Amino acid sequence: MKMRKILVLGGNGFLGRNLCNHLVAMGEDVYSFDMSLPEIGNPEIHYIEGDFFDDYTLKKIIEGMDVIFHAICTLNPGNSNEKCILGYERDFVQTAKLCSFIKDTECRMIFFSSGGTVYGNQVEQPIKETAVPVPINHYGNLKLCIENTIRTFNFQMKKNMLVARISNPYGPGQDYHKGVGFIDAAIKRSLHHETIEIWGDGNIIRDYIFIDDVCKMLYSLIDYHGDIEVFNLSSNTGTSQNDVINILNKIIPHVQVKYLPARPVDAKKIVLDNTRIQSICNLQMVSLEDGIRRYYDYIQQRKQ
């Protein structure tokens, strides 16, 4: 198979960095673009420093690319309600420009949406891609606005851009200080003998998926050329925060938890049906207990 030139926008982030390493391992020619260069990089990856929101820069970096993974977002679910205008003015507008820049090329784009926030509160679970999205925070709504723009470009320009609705990824490289990552926060706080904060009673259910599985699913989308535009990338399994604490207690005894008032930005239950993506990649997925153990071991090794 011919080596493809693949650009990852947001290549220094948790998802982007893991994806770049996976793409290199699969023999692809990988370009990582972000606001700054990593302190420690992979010698097999081409790192590009620049501003995604500068039109000239964006046009130059996409030249000659076969595939673009778009993982840049200036908001997170926790701060999106107070910073929503920033997201609409910058992320939404610039991604629409990106679509227009690639409309006359052979390049395809795969956009990282949010399976955990786009759908909002849904009765039927696991949630299929055909469900009507009703986001309850601006982060989810921003992602949905971008999704709809991509659909319009696909229809008008006969493009084949895809949307990956990723559930709740966790694993090496995550940093909960950036606004997401309950499992990351739980492990690291426990290791430092700090209290884990849970907003609500701990019965909020999420669809946690190990980062390696996310990367494999994303990679499988490169060669998909059917009519489907949207894919859930998920484990298809719901787990409460209290369940995560119970698993963690088997590894780190006496985990300390503090329950705080529930937040209006959090949907009560999000479990995503992954039938579509599994029909393409057919993964034997990492179980939550195994994934948490792997991530714990990784953190311990890094400490040493």
TrEMBL record:
Domain of life of the source: Bacteria
InterPro entries: Epimerase_deHydtase (IPR001509), NAD(P)-bd_dom_sf (IPR036291)
Annotated ranges, domain NAD-dependent epimerase/dehydratase: 6-232
PANTHER family, per the entry: DTDP-D-GLUCOSE 4,6-DEHYDRATASE-RELATED
Lineage of source species: Bacteria, Bacillati, Bacillota, Clostridia, Lachnospirales
Name of the protein this chain belongs to: NAD-dependent epimerase/dehydratase family protein
Family, per entry: Belongs to the NAD(P)-dependent epimerase/dehydratase family.
